Amino acid sequence: GRCMLLGAVLVMAGLLTGCISGNVANPRMGLSAHFAGVMGGIMMLALGAGWRHVQLGATAERWALGLLAFGNIANWATVLLAAIWGAGRTTMPLAAGEHAATAWQENLVGILLVALSLAMVAGIAIMAGWLVPRQFPGYYNVIFGAVIFLYGAYRFAIVFMQMQGENRGGL
Q1: Most buried pick, 24, 76, 163, 171, via CB within 10 A?
Q2: String of b and e for 122-154 (b: at least 16 CB within 10 Å)?
């Protein structure tokens, strides 16, 4: 329930971000925020659809869900802040381009990116059983692998499109 609700809210936030992405200090980063919200929401929807197959203890389940929720919300919010501030030159150079914000804004974006990345890795590790061992149903491994593969393909496509945009002088 909570994964699905959060997923739907993130998809909506990502879609609304797409509506304003051209009106921020760095439109390319605004587009990245749009994608971060939509894809984070889709990830949470996919996890929510399969969550009943995850057999974790109550504490591990709370941690996994909390870390994944924080990671996805923080990813969207951090990239949106970077778009509004024009930040990300050191941490997201493909999306930031020549934009740079004040030192404290760049540092905050960097700290948040590290924190959300660690949270996402830990949440996935708990859910996958790498930190909390348990048994998965056989078909769940296939579903989980497909979700991770598709997310990786999405990230590759985004970087590729950003590089193509830079080579043409814009996105």
Answers
A1: 76
A2: bbbebbbbeebeeebeeeeeebbeebeeebeee
Name the pTM for this structure.
0.74
Tokens, residue 35? 């994608």
Q: What are the structure tokens assigned to 41, written together?
A: 């929401």
- When pLDDT is averaged across residues 8-18 and rounded to a whole number, the result is 96
Q: Indicate the SS3 state at residue 8.
A: helix
Q: Compute the distance between CA of residue 96 and CA of residue 113 in angstroms, rounded to an integer.
A: 14
Structure tokens at 62: 């709370």
C-alpha–C-alpha distance, residues 22 and 24, integer Å: 6
Rounded-to-integer distance, Cα 121 and Cα 69, Å: 12
